[in-house]
Amino acid sequence: MLAIFAFCPIGLLFVLGLQVINPRSAKAWLRPSWHLNPFNFRQPLQFFHLGTYVCLAQALVVLVRLVFSQTSFYVEALVPLAMAAGVLLGLKLVMLVFRSKIERGA
Q1: So what's the pLDDT on residue 105?
Q2: Those residues with Cβ within 8 angstroms of residue 56's Cβ, 6 or more apart along the chain or in another chain
Q3: pLDDT value for 71
Q4: Which long-range contacts (CB under 8 A, 24 or more apart) does 51-55 make?
Q5: Can you tell me the distance from the alpha carbon of 32 to that of 49, in angstroms, rounded to the nearest whole number?
Q6: What is the b/e burial string over 48-81, where b = at least 16 CB atoms within 10 angstroms of the residue's CB?
Q7: Which of 7, 12, 25, 27 has the most CB atoms around its CB within 10 Å?
Q8: pLDDT (tens digit, 9 = 90+) per residue, 26-57?
Q9: How would you classify residue 93: left for phi > 0, otherwise alpha for psi between -120 and 50, otherwise beta?
């Protein structure tokens, strides 16, 4: 779980670092918001923001299912939670590292 958690922010920094130099990317990225289209690929933060909350929802469902079923706990049930936490940390790091790319007033 620690490896998954650690890989997600590093991978996100790499992928979004490539998007910083991508000429098709927007000149300035907007901060992640529920009011923006997550499938506007000129704003890549929105897509990863949605993906983070999809993983959190999946983690919640899996953990609640384990509580109410006769299935014993297995460590793989924590994978979506580790991924979501890693990507959320990665989004924060991206906004810190590439703050010149993030729109000021948003």
Answers
A1: 55
A2: 80, 81, 84
A3: 87
A4: 51/87, 52/84, 52/87, 52/88, 52/91, 53/84, 55/80, 55/81, 55/83, 55/84, 55/87
A5: 6
A6: bbbbbeebbeebeebeeeeeeeeeeeeeeebbbb
A7: 12
A8: 999 999 999 999 999 899 999 999 999 999 99
A9: alpha
Q: Retrieve residue 20's tokens.
A: 């910083």
Measure the CA dihedral 36/39/41/43, to 10°: 20
Query: At 34, phi and psi to the nearest 5?
Result: -75, -15
* Residue 98 to residue 106: CA distance in whole angstroms: 15
Query: CA 89: distance to chain centroid?
Result: 8
Quote the pLDDT of residue 81: 95
